[in-house]
Amino acid sequence: MSQLNHVQKVRLLYKTCLKLHRGLPLHLKAIGDTYVKDEFRRHKKADTAQTQIFMEAWAKYAIDLTKQMGIKGPHTSKKLGEDIKEPELDKFNDEQLAQLYELYQEATKPIDLEKDPHLADK
Q1: pLDDT tens per residue, range 70-79
Q2: CA-CA distances (angstroms) from residue 12 to 4, 6, 48, 122?
Q3: Most buried among 42, 54, 103, 121, by the most CB within 10 A?
Q4: Are 46 and 54 in contact (CB under 8 A)?
Q5: Residues of the chain with pLDDT under 70
Q6: From the centroid of its chain, how far is CA 34?
Q7: What sign does the CA torsion over 24, 26, 32, 37 have?
Q8: From CA 17, how far away is CA 37, in angstroms rounded?
Q9: Closest alpha carbon to 106 in 31, 25, 22, 37
Q10: Is 14 exposed, middle or buried (0-12, 13-18, 19+ CB in 10 A)?
């Protein structure tokens, strides 16, 4: 089997993350898909050092989510997500903290079924 080039590796990781989100509850899938697409788009022109860190972080995310979801999806797994420890938060820059806060707000806001009818329980 031939080695994947950089673009193929990025595309594979991107698609893997989106496929993993299929097993999430709909509201988390919607948030996760939007976030993945935005982050991969934002890092298209990143330098080599940033790209290395980016790829490692998203690969870790994919591995962690796979473990958390269990074999048959999140209904058979443990709690989804992971708490961020204070020493890790101290390493975040202002932009990252703002982004984390926006993600928190999005994840905790009530579902508006008029705006997002696909998120209704079936």
Answers
A1: 766 555 556 6
A2: 9, 10, 18, 32
A3: 54
A4: yes
A5: 1-2, 71-79, 111, 113, 115-122
A6: 9
A7: positive
A8: 10
A9: 31
A10: middle
- The one-letter amino acid code at 121 reads D
Q: What is the pLDDT of residue 23?
A: 87
Written as six digits, the tokens of 56 are 């490692």
| Token pair 């982004």: residue | 99
Q: Would you give the DSSP letter of residue 91?
A: T
Helix ranges restricted to H, the chain: 6-21, 26-42, 48-69, 86-89, 94-108
Token output for 37: 């697409």
How far is it, in rounded angstroms, from Cα 81 to Cα 23? Answer: 14
Q: Which residues contact 4 (CB under 8 A, 6 or more apart)?
A: 12
| Residue written as token pair 């938060």 | 89
